[in-house]
From TrEMBL, chains A, B:
InterPro entries: Aminodeoxychorismate_lyase_IV (IPR017824), Aminotrans_IV (IPR001544), Aminotransferase-like (IPR036038), BCAT-like_C (IPR043132), BCAT-like_N (IPR043131), Class-IV_PLP-Dep_Aminotrnsfr (IPR050571). GO terms for biological process: 4-aminobenzoate biosynthetic process; folic acid biosynthetic process. This is Aminodeoxychorismate lyase. It comes from Billgrantia montanilacus. One of its GO terms (molecular function) is 4-amino-4-deoxychorismate lyase activity. The lineage of its organism: Bacteria, Pseudomonadati, Pseudomonadota, Gammaproteobacteria, Oceanospirillales.
Length: 273, 273
């Protein structure tokens, strides 16, 4: 295992670069203390197991958040399978590379309070049960989907997979309230299983469901969430052409899930109506 | 555009590493002369157009094969979108990174002559029309598929997509002869459009078809091909569990396509029965 070092590079023959053969995590860190660290480490471990990459010693990971610097930071870890192998065939014995960097981060309180406008993306995610849920380095679909719009007032884009099922947003997970029931898409075939999503599923009665996009128009509330940004209520949903499909008044119905999430991230939970 | 340099590295924030946001080419070079160079440059250009990555000046690419060294070499180019952007969103103006390295290469004449044993893979490729055909850096599916077997006498694994259509092998394209007609899978939804495949489609009457795996058992001949290895006739096809599904006697029916391909690569064309 190569030693982790900030701002480090990888050689051209690293399989993370060559094939996206690796994993990453982006962790919110407040004054050296990571949020949802156990969930991040659990997802990294699961990814290593699926890809057959040796998991770094926990000590080598646990020491990183306190090195991220003071204030609110995002710690990004990249773990690749390292170099070697014959073409796509991984080497019999891998020497993974761990790299990290930390950046200052400022959340967007107005999005917590007032909600966001989102749209459907045209791109449909491929179906790949072997990789679904993992935060691996093959993210071209997310890049292309995010590149579908540039308007700064459009906060996110929603993604279905090639079978037409709702999956997620480009970098956030999706939740909604329907007939009093919290729901989120199943991620068996596509998408990234967010760490905040995992923590919420542990703490709230959220059902993982197969749903098509029309479920959202009938929802009492819709949210986007991840472990960096917290929870954004959705105030307006547009189709891929920019036509409004639905809108919601952000109010009491939105605050319960948000408060549960923000409690986990030490973000504000009070937003007076 | 960063200058290309052999054995160079990329920084941790390079989008090629972070997201697989880039393209690659592996080019056969004989004593400084590249084979199928125009096809490689055409595929790279198409990839740049689809991903919105500025194509390097042709001069910066054309000078590389002669720097690959004497004898038979494989020149690998990696072109990434470079650093920058906000998360998945690409920067408004990219500064791509071009990296290259060259390695000695020895083909396997016994595979040209006697053919190879191949198997079906369990993994099914995701469907992504926006990326199909490109040699992009998101290759985890290929890595996982190639990792399904380790027996050295199994030369390749065949892949279908999630709709069940035949696509390719893990690093080669697939061809077969059926009722006197040369056929190869369409690559509109999945797979990599090989440069040797492109050159053969220009020169021979090959039909691009949608076909399920059962088409192979009834084929008069089956081949795998790429621009590095040339053309391997398929002598035996196994299912994913190792049970033989079909076998072929390698003979005259196999040599026509092979000769056309090997003529393009300056590989041998005569294999006495």
């Amino acid at each position: 295992m190569s030693l982790a070092s900030e701002q480090s590079s990888v050689p051209m023959d690293d399989r993370g670069l060559a094939y996206g053969d690796g994993l990453f995590e982006t962790v919110l860190v407040r004054d050296g203390t990571p949020l949802l660290w156990d969930e991040h480490m659990a997802r990294l471990a699961r990814g290593c197991q699926v890809l057959g990459i040796p998991l770094p010693a926990r000590d080598a990971l646990d020491c990183l958040p306190e090195r991220a610097g003071p204030g609110l930071r995002v710690l990004k870890l990249i773990l690749t399978r390292g170099s070697g192998g014959r073409g796509y065939l991984p080497p019999a014995s891998s020497s993974p590379r761990l790299r990290w960097q930390a950046m200052a981060f400022s959340p967007q309180p107005s999005r917590w309070r007032d909600g966001v406008r989102v749209r459907h993306c045209r791109l449909r995610l491929g179906i790949q049960p072997l990789l679904a849920g993992l935060k691996h380095l093959n993210r071209l679909e997310n890049v292309l989907a995010r590149n579908e719009w540039s308007a700064p007032d459009l906060a996110e884009g929603l993604l279905c997979n090639s079978d037409g099922w709702l999956v997620e947003a480009t970098c956030m997970n999706l939740f909604w309230l329907r007939e009093g029931q919290l729901e989120t898409p199943r991620l068996d075939d596509s998408g990234v299983a967010g760490t905040l999503r995992a923590a919420l599923l542990e703490r709230l009665p959220v059902s993982e469901v197969m749903a098509t996009p029309d479920v959202l128009a009938g929802a009492e509330a819709v949210w986007l969430a991840n472990s960096i940004q917290g929870v954004w209520p959705v105030a307006q949903l547009d189709d891929a052409g920019g036509t409004r499909l639905a809108n919601w008044t952000i109010g009491r119905a939105h605050r319960h899930l948000q408060a549960a999430a923000h409690d986990l991230l030490d973000y504000p939970v009070d937003f007076p109506e």
